[in-house]
Amino acid sequence: MREILLGYGIFAMYYVLTINTIYFGIILFSFKEISKILKSTTFSKYKSLSGSNNVPPISILVPAFNEELTIIENVRSLLALHYPKHEVIVVNDGSSDDTVGVLIKEFELQYYKPTSIKDVIKTAKVRGLYYNPDYPNLYVVDKENGGKADSLNAGINLSSYPLISSIDADSLLEEDALIRIARMYMEKPEEYVAIGGNVRIANGCKIENGVVKNVKLPKKLLPMWQLVEYMKAFLGGRIGWSSVNGLIIVSGAFGVFRKDYVVEVGGYRGGYPGEDMNIIIKLHRHMLENNLPYKVAFCPDAVCWTQAPDTFKILGSQRKRWGRGNLKNMIEEGRFMFMRPKYKIMGWLTIPYNIIFETLSPYFRITGLLALIGYALMDMSGWKILLVFSLINILYGTLLGIGSMLLEEIAFQRYPRIRDFFKMLIYTVLMFFGYRQLGILWRFLGHIDFFRKKTSWGTMVRTSFNEDKKSA
Amino acid sequence: MFFNLEAAFYVIYVLAGLMTIMSSIIIGIKVKKKRTHKKTEKVMQEHESYFKYVTQQLDAKESLHVPKAELTTFEKKVFQRELVERIERLSGAQREKLIQLCKDLGLIEFNLKRLKSGRHYVRLEAAYNLGAMRCAEAVPTLCKMLYKNKKDSTRFIIARSIAQTATSTGQVNDMIHYLAKDQENNYQLIVDIAQESDLDLHAPFISLLKEPNPELTKVGLFGLRDQPDSEMHSILRPHLNSNDYDIRMNAAKLMVASGGSSLQEMEQFMKFKDEEVRLFTAEWIGQTGVKKYQEVLELGVQDENKQVARKSAKSLSQLGDSGFRTLCKLAVSNLRNGTIAFEMIHEYLKESAAGYSTNRKVADYHRKLSIYETYFGKDQELIDAM
Question: pTM of the full predicted structure?
Answer without folding.
Answer: 0.92
